[in-house]
Amino acid sequence: MKYTVSSLSFTCLTGSQMASLPEHFGIEIFYGWASERYWTELLKRCYQRERKSFSIHSPFDFYHMDSEIPDDQLFDYLSEPFDLYHRFSGTHYVVHTDSGGCRKLEEREKERLRARCMERINRFAEICENNGIGLVIENVPCPGGSGLFSQKDFTRLFQENSGLHALYDTGHGNMSGYDVRKLQAELKGQLAGYHLHDNFGDSDSHLRIGKGNMDWSAFMKGVKADTPGASMVLEYNEASVSDYEEDRKILESLVGE
Q1: Which of 21, 175, 224, 236 has its Cα between 20 and 30 A from that of 169?
Q2: Could you report the per-residue pLDDT of 233-245, keeping only the tens digit for each?
Q3: 3-state DSSP: the chain helix, strand, coil percent, rounded to 5?
Q4: Domains of the chain, earliest start first
């Protein structure tokens, strides 16, 4: 299986430590949290030897698929990392379905916003395809499962658009009440990657695996059975370089590898 480490736990003065990660780990960056010059300098140091896999999490602090802004402005914002993606031979570009959270909306308003998101996702997918970008769409968190995209809505997005690919965030799904084994079985090849982190279902705490209440054994059996080629991105809030290798070995042991 292919494992990648997110830049989430390597912020500010710890960023340079990513270059010390074992070479079998890929790198995924939160593009919006530093300048392109910063990322270029860091990535040059990370990819000096045998490291290969690279992916980018899109900027999301200000604009989302459900934002009340013109489409062109949104797509320009989301397209900004394309040059960096190609410079380091990116494989995946991660974009959220929507802004997330649990807003109290009438069902009619949720349907309107969800339709806007689905239309924009499909339009942006065309932009990505035309620019050689491997777009993956990530589920967002909502405790209690009352967000814009229920599991049924999230699954339907891909079932109705066979060219789209999903990235399932385990922590977000745990907060939203998703049945991950059902999702894996239904999406299979369209499920291109995972963000791996743990929690107790009440907050997006990005804990290390095994530090929350998720069943990682069942999850990894589903990975092996239905999505063995998916990218496995460890996305922790706080972790050391050695923690990632330790957790990779734990995950591999759960599938007998």
Answers
A1: 21
A2: 999 999 999 999 9
A3: 45, 15, 40
A4: 2-254 (3.20.20.150)
